[in-house]
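Q: How would the structure tokens look for this protein?
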Amino acid sequence: MTFRLLEGLASSNRDDLHLKEQQMVTLNVPDMTCGHCAKAVTEAVKSVDSNATVNVDLETKTVQIDSQSADAAVIQALDAAGYPSDVKTA
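A: Here is the predicted structure in token form.
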């Protein structure tokens, strides 16, 4: 039975199983003001991708994230945590 399940998985669409390539994004998070905020933002990002690298800069109110998750998913998690954000443009 297990073999048949794995066989079906092997023949399924492999694109559905493929993770997005790791990429860096910088988000503006204007409501961050303190260490507690930085921790909450980091935890929100990690709830979407536990392997993400998160660098919070309170001075510039930005978060640099290296993740395989879609930007929209990260932005949604931050919004749910009370930290609205948007992608920083040059």
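The longest strand covers residues 23-28.

Residues 1-18 have pLDDT under 50 and may be disordered.

Upvote if useful.
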